[in-house]
Amino acid sequence: MRWSELAGRRVLVLGAGREGRAVAARLAAEGEDVRAVDELDGEAAAQFRAELGERVPLLVAPGVDELRGADVAIASPGIPPHSALRRAVAELGIPETSETDLWLGDHAAETTAVTGSKGKSTTAALIHALSLAHGVDAQLGGNIGVPLLTLPAAERYVAELSSYQASSVTASPDVVALTALFPEHLDWHGDEEAYYAAKLNLAAHGARRVLYNAADPRLAATVARLLPDVDAEPVGRIPPAALEASPLLGRHNEANLAIALAAVEAAGTTLDEARVVEALAAFRPLQHRLEPIEDPSGLVFVDDSLSTSPYAAIAALEALEGREIVLVVGGQDRGVDYAPLAEHLAAHPVDAVIGLPDSGPRILAALSETGVLTVPVDGMEAAVRSARRLAAPGGTVLLSPAAPSYGRYRDYADRAADFRRAISATAD
Is the pLDDT of residue 187 over 80? Predict the structure, then answer.
Protein backbone atom coordinates (compact mmCIF):
# COMPACT_ATOMS: atom_id res chain seq x y z
CA MET A 1 0.00 0.00 0.00
CA ARG A 2 1.25 3.51 -0.80
CA TRP A 3 0.99 6.51 1.48
CA SER A 4 -1.03 8.40 -1.10
CA GLU A 5 -3.79 5.77 -0.81
CA LEU A 6 -4.54 7.02 2.72
CA ALA A 7 -5.81 10.37 1.42
CA GLY A 8 -9.45 10.96 2.34
CA ARG A 9 -9.69 7.77 4.40
CA ARG A 10 -10.45 7.45 8.10
CA VAL A 11 -7.25 6.08 9.62
CA LEU A 12 -6.80 4.23 12.92
CA VAL A 13 -3.23 4.15 14.27
CA LEU A 14 -2.59 1.12 16.49
CA GLY A 15 0.08 1.93 19.06
CA ALA A 16 1.31 5.13 20.71
CA GLY A 17 5.04 4.37 20.49
CA ARG A 18 7.68 6.13 18.42
CA GLU A 19 6.48 4.70 15.10
CA GLY A 20 2.80 5.29 15.86
CA ARG A 21 3.54 8.89 16.80
CA ALA A 22 5.41 9.46 13.52
CA VAL A 23 2.50 8.06 11.49
CA ALA A 24 -0.13 10.05 13.40
CA ALA A 25 1.88 13.28 13.18
CA ARG A 26 2.26 13.05 9.42
CA LEU A 27 -1.40 12.21 8.86
CA ALA A 28 -2.48 15.12 11.09
CA ALA A 29 -0.12 17.49 9.25
CA GLU A 30 -1.73 16.44 5.96
CA GLY A 31 -5.21 17.10 7.35
CA GLU A 32 -6.37 13.49 7.33
CA ASP A 33 -9.01 12.02 9.64
CA VAL A 34 -6.82 10.11 12.12
CA ARG A 35 -7.19 8.76 15.63
CA ALA A 36 -4.96 6.48 17.67
CA VAL A 37 -5.46 3.66 20.15
CA ASP A 38 -3.23 1.76 22.56
CA GLU A 39 -3.71 -0.99 25.10
CA LEU A 40 -1.87 0.73 27.96
CA ASP A 41 -1.95 4.22 29.43
CA GLY A 42 1.78 4.22 30.06
CA GLU A 43 4.86 6.19 29.08
CA ALA A 44 4.21 5.88 25.34
CA ALA A 45 0.68 7.22 25.71
CA ALA A 46 1.94 10.15 27.79
CA GLN A 47 4.55 10.96 25.15
CA PHE A 48 1.90 10.73 22.42
CA ARG A 49 -0.30 13.28 24.21
CA ALA A 50 2.68 15.55 24.86
CA GLU A 51 3.68 15.58 21.17
CA LEU A 52 0.29 15.58 19.48
CA GLY A 53 -2.01 17.20 22.04
CA GLU A 54 -5.54 17.47 20.72
CA ARG A 55 -4.55 17.11 17.06
CA VAL A 56 -4.94 13.33 17.24
CA PRO A 57 -7.35 11.73 19.77
CA LEU A 58 -5.82 8.81 21.70
CA LEU A 59 -8.05 6.10 23.16
CA VAL A 60 -6.64 3.62 25.66
CA ALA A 61 -8.01 0.04 25.83
CA PRO A 62 -11.00 0.91 23.63
CA GLY A 63 -14.05 -1.29 23.21
CA VAL A 64 -14.91 -2.75 19.82
CA ASP A 65 -17.57 -0.11 19.18
CA GLU A 66 -14.98 2.65 19.58
CA LEU A 67 -12.97 1.17 16.70
CA ARG A 68 -15.81 1.17 14.22
CA GLY A 69 -15.81 3.53 11.28
CA ALA A 70 -12.14 3.28 10.36
CA ASP A 71 -11.29 2.59 6.71
CA VAL A 72 -7.77 1.37 7.40
CA ALA A 73 -5.62 0.55 10.45
CA ILE A 74 -1.87 1.16 10.62
CA ALA A 75 -0.35 -1.26 13.14
CA SER A 76 2.78 -0.41 15.11
CA PRO A 77 5.39 -3.11 15.93
CA GLY A 78 4.57 -2.99 19.64
CA ILE A 79 1.04 -4.32 19.11
CA PRO A 80 1.29 -8.10 18.44
CA PRO A 81 -1.14 -9.94 16.14
CA HIS A 82 -2.66 -11.87 19.06
CA SER A 83 -3.44 -8.71 21.07
CA ALA A 84 -7.04 -7.87 21.88
CA LEU A 85 -6.70 -4.66 19.89
CA ARG A 86 -5.61 -6.31 16.64
CA ARG A 87 -8.10 -9.13 17.06
CA ALA A 88 -10.89 -6.55 17.38
CA VAL A 89 -9.68 -4.74 14.24
CA ALA A 90 -9.66 -8.05 12.35
CA GLU A 91 -13.16 -8.94 13.57
CA LEU A 92 -14.45 -5.60 12.28
CA GLY A 93 -12.90 -6.30 8.87
CA ILE A 94 -10.73 -3.18 8.91
CA PRO A 95 -7.81 -3.60 6.46
CA GLU A 96 -4.37 -3.37 8.10
CA THR A 97 -1.06 -1.99 6.93
CA SER A 98 2.09 -0.69 8.66
CA GLU A 99 4.53 2.20 8.51
CA THR A 100 7.15 -0.14 7.03
CA ASP A 101 4.85 -1.38 4.26
CA LEU A 102 3.69 2.16 3.45
CA TRP A 103 7.33 3.26 3.30
CA LEU A 104 8.34 0.45 0.97
CA GLY A 105 5.31 1.10 -1.20
CA ASP A 106 6.93 4.41 -2.10
CA HIS A 107 10.67 3.80 -1.57
CA ALA A 108 11.44 0.11 -2.17
CA ALA A 109 13.61 0.80 -5.22
CA GLU A 110 15.97 3.06 -3.23
CA THR A 111 16.11 0.99 -0.05
CA THR A 112 18.57 -1.52 1.37
CA ALA A 113 16.99 -3.29 4.36
CA VAL A 114 18.70 -5.39 7.00
CA THR A 115 17.12 -7.90 9.34
CA GLY A 116 18.30 -10.82 11.46
CA SER A 117 18.19 -12.19 14.99
CA LYS A 118 21.49 -10.47 15.79
CA GLY A 119 23.71 -7.93 14.07
CA LYS A 120 21.07 -6.04 12.13
CA SER A 121 21.73 -2.66 13.79
CA THR A 122 25.50 -2.90 13.42
CA THR A 123 25.22 -4.11 9.83
CA ALA A 124 22.80 -1.33 8.90
CA ALA A 125 25.07 1.26 10.52
CA LEU A 126 28.06 -0.16 8.61
CA ILE A 127 26.18 -0.01 5.30
CA HIS A 128 25.25 3.59 6.00
CA ALA A 129 28.81 4.59 6.96
CA LEU A 130 30.36 2.82 3.96
CA SER A 131 27.80 4.36 1.61
CA LEU A 132 28.55 7.86 2.88
CA ALA A 133 32.29 7.21 2.55
CA HIS A 134 31.73 6.49 -1.16
CA GLY A 135 29.81 9.70 -1.76
CA VAL A 136 26.30 8.20 -1.62
CA ASP A 137 23.62 10.47 -0.14
CA ALA A 138 22.26 7.89 2.32
CA GLN A 139 19.87 8.02 5.28
CA LEU A 140 19.58 5.43 8.07
CA GLY A 141 16.33 4.61 9.87
CA GLY A 142 13.82 1.99 11.00
CA ASN A 143 14.17 -0.13 14.12
CA ILE A 144 17.49 1.58 14.88
CA GLY A 145 15.49 4.43 16.42
CA VAL A 146 14.49 6.77 13.56
CA PRO A 147 11.02 6.13 12.07
CA LEU A 148 11.25 5.68 8.31
CA LEU A 149 8.55 8.29 7.71
CA THR A 150 10.74 10.96 9.33
CA LEU A 151 13.73 10.45 7.02
CA PRO A 152 14.55 13.31 4.64
CA ALA A 153 14.75 12.72 0.90
CA ALA A 154 17.90 10.82 -0.07
CA GLU A 155 19.55 8.93 -2.89
CA ARG A 156 19.64 5.74 -0.80
CA TYR A 157 17.88 4.58 2.34
CA VAL A 158 19.23 1.98 4.77
CA ALA A 159 16.52 0.43 6.94
CA GLU A 160 17.11 -1.78 9.95
CA LEU A 161 13.93 -3.83 10.42
CA SER A 162 12.71 -6.04 13.24
CA SER A 163 10.77 -9.24 12.71
CA TYR A 164 7.63 -7.30 13.66
CA GLN A 165 8.26 -4.81 10.87
CA ALA A 166 9.36 -7.42 8.33
CA SER A 167 6.24 -9.51 8.94
CA SER A 168 3.98 -6.75 7.61
CA VAL A 169 5.55 -5.97 4.23
CA THR A 170 3.93 -6.70 0.87
CA ALA A 171 6.75 -5.14 -1.18
CA SER A 172 10.40 -6.05 -0.70
CA PRO A 173 13.21 -3.49 -0.71
CA ASP A 174 15.71 -3.39 -3.56
CA VAL A 175 18.44 -5.11 -1.51
CA VAL A 176 17.79 -7.38 1.49
CA ALA A 177 20.60 -8.35 3.88
CA LEU A 178 20.03 -11.21 6.35
CA THR A 179 22.53 -11.40 9.22
CA ALA A 180 21.64 -14.35 11.48
CA LEU A 181 18.75 -16.53 12.56
CA PHE A 182 17.88 -18.14 15.89
CA PRO A 183 14.67 -18.36 17.96
CA GLU A 184 13.57 -14.94 19.28
CA HIS A 185 10.40 -13.04 20.19
CA LEU A 186 8.34 -16.22 20.35
CA ASP A 187 5.85 -14.51 22.66
CA TRP A 188 5.02 -12.07 19.84
CA HIS A 189 5.09 -14.49 16.90
CA GLY A 190 3.72 -17.61 18.57
CA ASP A 191 6.35 -20.15 17.57
CA GLU A 192 9.78 -20.54 16.03
CA GLU A 193 8.61 -21.18 12.47
CA ALA A 194 6.33 -18.13 12.49
CA TYR A 195 9.25 -15.99 13.66
CA TYR A 196 11.49 -17.27 10.84
CA ALA A 197 8.73 -16.70 8.30
CA ALA A 198 8.28 -13.14 9.56
CA LYS A 199 11.98 -12.38 9.14
CA LEU A 200 12.23 -13.84 5.64
CA ASN A 201 8.97 -12.24 4.52
CA LEU A 202 11.12 -9.16 3.93
CA ALA A 203 12.74 -10.92 0.96
CA ALA A 204 9.62 -12.66 -0.41
CA HIS A 205 8.10 -9.87 -2.49
CA GLY A 206 10.42 -9.08 -5.37
CA ALA A 207 13.76 -7.99 -3.91
CA ARG A 208 16.36 -7.47 -6.64
CA ARG A 209 19.21 -8.85 -4.48
CA VAL A 210 19.03 -11.00 -1.35
CA LEU A 211 22.24 -11.55 0.63
CA TYR A 212 22.68 -13.80 3.64
CA ASN A 213 25.38 -14.80 6.11
CA ALA A 214 26.98 -17.96 4.76
CA ALA A 215 28.44 -18.78 8.18
CA ASP A 216 24.99 -19.33 9.74
CA PRO A 217 23.76 -22.86 8.89
CA ARG A 218 20.30 -22.29 10.36
CA LEU A 219 19.86 -19.16 8.26
CA ALA A 220 21.07 -20.89 5.10
CA ALA A 221 18.72 -23.84 5.62
CA THR A 222 15.73 -21.61 6.40
CA VAL A 223 16.35 -19.40 3.37
CA ALA A 224 16.41 -22.51 1.18
CA ARG A 225 13.20 -23.82 2.76
CA LEU A 226 11.12 -20.64 2.95
CA LEU A 227 12.44 -18.79 -0.11
CA PRO A 228 12.84 -21.58 -2.68
CA ASP A 229 12.13 -19.25 -5.61
CA VAL A 230 14.49 -16.49 -4.47
CA ASP A 231 18.04 -16.42 -5.84
CA ALA A 232 19.64 -15.67 -2.46
CA GLU A 233 23.40 -15.11 -2.36
CA PRO A 234 25.62 -16.42 0.46
CA VAL A 235 28.21 -13.94 1.71
CA GLY A 236 31.34 -14.80 3.63
CA ARG A 237 34.46 -13.23 2.17
CA ILE A 238 36.01 -10.07 3.63
CA PRO A 239 38.94 -8.21 2.07
CA PRO A 240 41.91 -8.49 4.49
CA ALA A 241 42.40 -4.71 4.62
CA ALA A 242 38.79 -4.21 5.71
CA LEU A 243 39.04 -6.89 8.38
CA GLU A 244 42.22 -5.36 9.76
CA ALA A 245 40.67 -1.87 9.87
CA SER A 246 37.46 -2.96 11.60
CA PRO A 247 37.15 -2.01 15.29
CA LEU A 248 34.42 -4.61 15.89
CA LEU A 249 34.94 -7.67 18.08
CA GLY A 250 33.93 -11.24 17.35
CA ARG A 251 33.28 -13.61 14.47
CA HIS A 252 29.66 -12.49 14.27
CA ASN A 253 30.87 -8.97 13.50
CA GLU A 254 33.18 -10.30 10.80
CA ALA A 255 30.05 -11.73 9.17
CA ASN A 256 28.23 -8.43 9.67
CA LEU A 257 31.05 -6.56 7.96
CA ALA A 258 31.11 -9.01 5.03
CA ILE A 259 27.37 -8.56 4.52
CA ALA A 260 27.63 -4.78 4.80
CA LEU A 261 30.32 -4.60 2.13
CA ALA A 262 28.34 -6.90 -0.17
CA ALA A 263 25.15 -4.87 0.38
CA VAL A 264 26.86 -1.60 -0.56
CA GLU A 265 28.11 -3.21 -3.76
CA ALA A 266 24.69 -4.74 -4.45
CA ALA A 267 23.17 -1.25 -4.30
CA GLY A 268 25.42 -0.19 -7.17
CA THR A 269 28.49 1.28 -5.47
CA THR A 270 31.98 0.20 -6.55
CA LEU A 271 34.01 -0.24 -3.40
CA ASP A 272 37.33 1.58 -3.06
CA GLU A 273 39.73 -0.05 -0.60
CA ALA A 274 41.10 3.22 0.75
CA ARG A 275 37.61 4.60 1.40
CA VAL A 276 36.53 1.34 3.04
CA VAL A 277 39.54 1.36 5.38
CA GLU A 278 39.01 5.04 6.25
CA ALA A 279 35.30 4.50 6.99
CA LEU A 280 35.96 1.46 9.18
CA ALA A 281 38.76 3.17 11.09
CA ALA A 282 36.30 5.94 12.00
CA PHE A 283 33.39 3.58 12.77
CA ARG A 284 32.45 3.21 16.42
CA PRO A 285 30.53 0.23 17.81
CA LEU A 286 26.93 1.06 18.62
CA GLN A 287 25.93 1.60 22.21
CA HIS A 288 25.06 -1.43 24.35
CA ARG A 289 26.66 -3.83 21.88
CA LEU A 290 29.88 -5.10 23.48
CA GLU A 291 30.59 -1.55 24.64
CA PRO A 292 33.60 -1.43 27.03
CA ILE A 293 33.43 0.61 30.24
CA GLU A 294 36.76 1.31 31.90
CA ASP A 295 36.99 1.16 35.69
CA PRO A 296 39.69 2.42 38.10
CA SER A 297 40.00 -1.07 39.56
CA GLY A 298 41.52 -2.38 36.33
CA LEU A 299 38.47 -4.50 35.59
CA VAL A 300 36.83 -4.01 32.21
CA PHE A 301 33.05 -3.87 32.34
CA VAL A 302 31.31 -4.63 29.02
CA ASP A 303 27.79 -3.42 28.26
CA ASP A 304 26.04 -5.88 25.95
CA SER A 305 22.59 -5.01 27.25
CA LEU A 306 21.05 -5.50 23.81
CA SER A 307 21.62 -9.25 24.25
CA THR A 308 18.11 -10.70 24.58
CA SER A 309 18.67 -14.39 23.83
CA PRO A 310 21.11 -17.17 24.78
CA TYR A 311 22.52 -17.06 21.24
CA ALA A 312 23.36 -13.38 21.61
CA ALA A 313 25.15 -14.10 24.90
CA ILE A 314 27.10 -16.90 23.22
CA ALA A 315 28.20 -14.52 20.46
CA ALA A 316 29.38 -12.04 23.10
CA LEU A 317 31.36 -14.74 24.91
CA GLU A 318 32.95 -15.84 21.63
CA ALA A 319 33.91 -12.24 20.86
CA LEU A 320 35.72 -12.01 24.22
CA GLU A 321 37.31 -15.46 24.01
CA GLY A 322 40.57 -15.72 25.92
CA ARG A 323 39.57 -13.32 28.68
CA GLU A 324 38.72 -14.17 32.29
CA ILE A 325 35.01 -13.39 32.44
CA VAL A 326 32.27 -12.97 34.99
CA LEU A 327 28.98 -13.12 33.08
CA VAL A 328 25.81 -11.31 34.23
CA VAL A 329 22.55 -12.74 32.85
CA GLY A 330 18.82 -12.47 33.46
CA GLY A 331 15.82 -10.31 32.65
CA GLN A 332 12.27 -10.81 31.46
CA ASP A 333 11.44 -14.52 31.52
CA ARG A 334 9.88 -15.56 28.21
CA GLY A 335 10.38 -19.28 28.75
CA VAL A 336 13.37 -19.49 26.39
CA ASP A 337 15.45 -22.69 26.36
CA TYR A 338 18.89 -21.97 27.83
CA ALA A 339 20.41 -25.34 26.93
CA PRO A 340 22.50 -23.78 24.11
CA LEU A 341 24.12 -21.39 26.60
CA ALA A 342 24.75 -24.26 29.01
CA GLU A 343 26.39 -26.29 26.24
CA HIS A 344 28.64 -23.38 25.34
CA LEU A 345 29.69 -22.73 28.94
CA ALA A 346 30.36 -26.41 29.54
CA ALA A 347 32.88 -26.31 26.69
CA HIS A 348 34.11 -22.75 27.34
CA PRO A 349 33.75 -22.09 31.09
CA VAL A 350 33.87 -18.62 32.62
CA ASP A 351 34.87 -17.62 36.16
CA ALA A 352 31.26 -17.17 37.31
CA VAL A 353 27.72 -16.47 36.12
CA ILE A 354 25.56 -14.05 38.08
CA GLY A 355 21.77 -14.26 37.68
CA LEU A 356 19.49 -11.20 37.78
CA PRO A 357 15.71 -11.34 38.26
CA ASP A 358 13.40 -12.48 36.81
CA SER A 359 14.87 -15.22 34.62
CA GLY A 360 18.23 -15.40 36.40
CA PRO A 361 17.38 -18.33 38.69
CA ARG A 362 16.06 -20.39 35.77
CA ILE A 363 19.15 -19.64 33.69
CA LEU A 364 21.42 -20.59 36.60
CA ALA A 365 19.47 -23.83 37.05
CA ALA A 366 20.08 -24.65 33.39
CA LEU A 367 23.83 -24.21 34.02
CA SER A 368 23.90 -26.54 37.04
CA GLU A 369 25.70 -29.35 35.20
CA THR A 370 28.38 -27.13 33.64
CA GLY A 371 30.58 -26.85 36.72
CA VAL A 372 30.58 -23.05 36.44
CA LEU A 373 30.08 -21.09 39.68
CA THR A 374 26.59 -19.51 39.71
CA VAL A 375 25.44 -16.68 41.98
CA PRO A 376 21.81 -15.45 42.19
CA VAL A 377 21.30 -11.79 43.12
CA ASP A 378 18.29 -9.53 43.63
CA GLY A 379 19.33 -6.55 41.50
CA MET A 380 21.95 -4.83 39.36
CA GLU A 381 23.99 -3.25 42.18
CA ALA A 382 24.23 -6.59 43.96
CA ALA A 383 25.31 -8.16 40.65
CA VAL A 384 28.12 -5.66 40.16
CA ARG A 385 29.28 -5.99 43.79
CA SER A 386 29.41 -9.77 43.39
CA ALA A 387 31.22 -9.43 40.06
CA ARG A 388 33.90 -7.22 41.63
CA ARG A 389 34.44 -9.85 44.30
CA LEU A 390 34.56 -12.79 41.88
CA ALA A 391 36.47 -11.31 38.94
CA ALA A 392 40.17 -11.97 38.49
CA PRO A 393 42.49 -8.92 38.55
CA GLY A 394 42.28 -7.26 35.15
CA GLY A 395 39.34 -9.49 34.26
CA THR A 396 36.13 -8.72 32.38
CA VAL A 397 32.61 -8.32 33.74
CA LEU A 398 30.19 -8.91 30.88
CA LEU A 399 26.55 -7.83 31.05
CA SER A 400 25.05 -9.97 28.30
CA PRO A 401 21.67 -10.80 29.85
CA ALA A 402 20.36 -13.35 27.31
CA ALA A 403 16.90 -11.96 28.09
CA PRO A 404 14.82 -8.85 27.37
CA SER A 405 14.78 -5.96 29.81
CA TYR A 406 11.03 -5.40 30.16
CA GLY A 407 9.36 -5.70 33.54
CA ARG A 408 12.27 -4.36 35.57
CA TYR A 409 13.41 -1.76 33.03
CA ARG A 410 11.89 0.45 30.36
CA ASP A 411 14.19 -1.00 27.69
CA TYR A 412 17.74 -2.26 27.10
CA ALA A 413 19.15 1.29 27.32
CA ASP A 414 17.54 1.77 30.73
CA ARG A 415 19.10 -1.52 31.86
CA ALA A 416 22.49 -0.38 30.57
CA ALA A 417 22.15 2.92 32.44
CA ASP A 418 21.51 1.00 35.66
CA PHE A 419 24.61 -1.11 34.95
CA ARG A 420 26.73 2.05 34.64
CA ARG A 421 25.15 3.51 37.77
CA ALA A 422 25.94 0.32 39.70
CA ILE A 423 29.55 0.37 38.47
CA SER A 424 29.94 3.93 39.75
CA ALA A 425 28.17 3.19 43.02
CA THR A 426 30.44 0.22 43.80
CA ALA A 427 33.77 1.74 42.73
CA ASP A 428 36.38 2.16 45.48
Answer: no
Query: What average pLDDT does range 57-73 have in this prediction?
Result: 95
Lowest mean pLDDT among 320-324, 376-380, 406-410: 406-410
Q: What is the average pLDDT across 113-142?
A: 97
- Helix axis angle, 18-29 to 99-107, nearest 10°: 60
Structurally, the chain folds into a number of domains equal to 3
37-57: pLDDT as tens digits: 999 999 899 999 999 998 999
**Do you know the residue count of the chain?**
428
| Gap between the Cα atoms of 174 and 108, Å rounded | 6
Task: Identify the H or E element spanning 47.
Answer: helix 43-52
Domain boundary among 74, 94, 114: 94
Strands 209-213 and 175-178: parallel
Which of 114, 118, 126 lies closest to 285 in space, CA to CA? 126
Tell me which residue range forms the domain holding 70: 3-94
| Domain CATH for 161 | 3.40.1190.10
Residue 188 has pLDDT above 70, yes or no: no
- Let me know whether 277 and 376 are in one domain: no
Do 149 and 73 fall within a single domain? no
Based on the domain organization, do 227 and 353 belong to the same domain? no
Q: How far is it, in rounded angstroms, from Cα 15 to Cα 163?
A: 17
Question: Based on the number of CB atoms within 10 Å of its own CB, is 63 exposed (0-12), middle (13-18) or buried (19 or more)?
Answer: exposed
